[in-house]
Amino acid sequence: MKAGIHPENYRAVAFKDMSNGETFITKSTVNTKEEIEIDGAKYPLVKLEISNTSHPFYTGKVKLVDTAGRVDKFRNRYGDRKKK
Predict the structure, then answer these.
(1) What SS3 class is residue 27?
(2) CA-CA distance, 39 to 54, in Å (whole number)?
(3) What is the pLDDT of residues 3-59, one digit of tens each?
(4) What is the SS3 string spanning 41-82?
(5) In angstroms, rounded to a whole number, what is the distance separating the alpha carbons of residues 13 and 23?
(6) Which candidate, 51, 59, 56, places its Cα nearest to that of 24?
(7) The pTM is what?
(8) Residues 20 and 54 sit within 8 Å (Cβ to Cβ)
(9) What is the C-alpha end-to-end distance of the chain, expressed in Å?
(10) What phi and psi values does residue 78 have, to the nearest 5 degrees?
């Protein structure tokens, strides 16, 4: 890595998913005012609304929406605007 171009505050940070209470630790430079204690160590805390543990796509609870044919339906309804 090149010296002098990377942030100085790169450290371990705890991210907490507020929808299900899941917490994970990773390195980040994010600024935060809150802390959390995990296994006897204190980490800066970032609260998330959604993460991979609660997102429908990653949990398998996603509802598939059939988008096939939407463009064709639009063109049939409104026609091709370029032709005049």
Answers:
(1) strand
(2) 23
(3) 888 888 889 999 998 888 889 999 999 999 999 999 999 999 999 887 767 766 666
(4) EEEEEEEECCCCCCCHHHHCCCCCCCCCCHHHHHHHHHCCCC
(5) 10
(6) 51
(7) 0.61
(8) yes
(9) 58
(10) -105, -5
